[in-house]
Amino acid sequence: MVFMLTSEQRLTAIHRLGRALADPTRCRMLLALLEGPSHPAGLADTLGLTRQNVSNHLACLRECGLVQGRQQGRQVTYELVDASLAHALEDLLDVVWGVAEEHTPPGESTPVPAG
């Protein structure tokens, strides 16, 4: 399905994405959810966070329209809203790391080979 967005709608969408990606913890959660759906407790354990912290960040990611929760009995499983978001995140990673020269990312000690 193709949506014809106005300039204002496009700006709002980019702002929501920027808000989500502005926080390193939310980025880590999105990357974890790229691997597949997860419960908040699983995300907390995997990322070394408190459940309250995970819940707060999941609320932000839901408000930004990037993740959704599915009720399964008494638990909620969170996942990316759809496969196109997973594809877009993978493409974004490819763009960022697919540079022409070997480089060492900020804060890293291991060089990334040329793209």
How large a portion of the residues is in β-strands, by DSSP E? Answer: 5-15%
Distance between the termini: 32 Å
- Which runs of at least 5 residues are low in confidence (pLDDT < 50)? none
Instruction: Specify the biggest β-sheet.
Output: 2 strands, antiparallel
Mass-distribution shape: globular
The number of distinct helices, counting runs of at least 4 residues, comes to: 5
> Would you count the extended β strands for me?
2
Order of helices and strands: HHHHEEH
Domain HTH arsR-type: 6-100
Protein name: Metalloregulator ArsR/SmtB family transcription factor
What key attributes describe this structure?
54% helix; 115 residues; mainly alpha; 2 strands; two-stranded antiparallel sheet; single chain
